[in-house]
Amino acid sequence: MTPGKASEEENTGTPGRSGELPHTRLSRRLGRFVEASGEFLSWIWLVLLAVVVVNVLLRYAFGSGRIELEEAQWHLYAVGFLGALAYGVQTDSHVRVDVFHEKLSPRMQAWIDLYGILLLALPFCVLVLVFAVPFVGESFAQNEVSPSPGGLPGRYLIKAALPLGFSLLLLAFFVRLLRVGQRLFGPDAENGSD
């Protein structure tokens, strides 16, 4: 999740590389929000690194492990990972499983993206949100804490990262859907025909 030229090039919407998709006004605005969120959340990795170093030093140099630092590591990793999902979709820097994808025309790639988003990605995100929101609500109502002695309080806070992360991912897929729609159904003259 390193901000840089790749994301700037991707946001231009100018056709050049085969995988680039044109933007709409709405996709550009929402995409900037998703990307800014991902860049902000990328700082979590530095915090996680610092927590790991402190925990290792305490454990091996001073013989004193701290359960709250262990749990903080898990929580920071979860938040960083959930933020990275949406950022990866937004910048199109995620791993593609389809080995034939690069050999297809940009228009065919867009059709595959369209069906993948509509039939797989959006329903999955909605399904996770349907179950995650009550999951967090129940944790909040019980004021759930860590079962470990000396663990972190407010377990609902880390559980809230799940619906927040998937909401951001849903937004990233919506932005991608707008861009794919622009490629398939928008005016071809400015964005280059395939």
Short description:
The chain has 194 residues and is mainly alpha-helical. Helices cover 72% and strands 0% of the residues.
Describe the structure.
It is a single chain. This protein has 194 residues and is mostly helical. It has one domain (5-14, 23-191). Helices cover 72% and strands 0% of the residues. It contains seven helices and no strands. It has helices at 5-12, 25-41, 44-62, 67-91, 106-141, 155-185, 188-191. The radius of gyration is 20 Å and the shape is elongated. Residues 1-18 and 189-194 have low confidence and may be disordered.
* Uncertain segments: 1-18, 189-194
Radius of gyration: 20 Å
Overall domain count: 1
Give the beta-strand count. Answer: 0
Oligomeric composition of the shown chains:
single chain
Strand content bin: under 5%
Number of helical segments with 4 or more residues = 7
Measured distance between first and last alpha carbons: 30 Å
Major sheet details: none
Identify the overall geometry: elongated
Give me the secondary-structure category. Answer: mainly alpha
Mean pLDDT: 84
Task: Spell the H/E element sequence.
Answer: HHHHHHH
Helical content class: over 70%
Protein traits:
single chain, 194 residues, mainly alpha, 72% helix, disordered N terminus, disordered C terminus
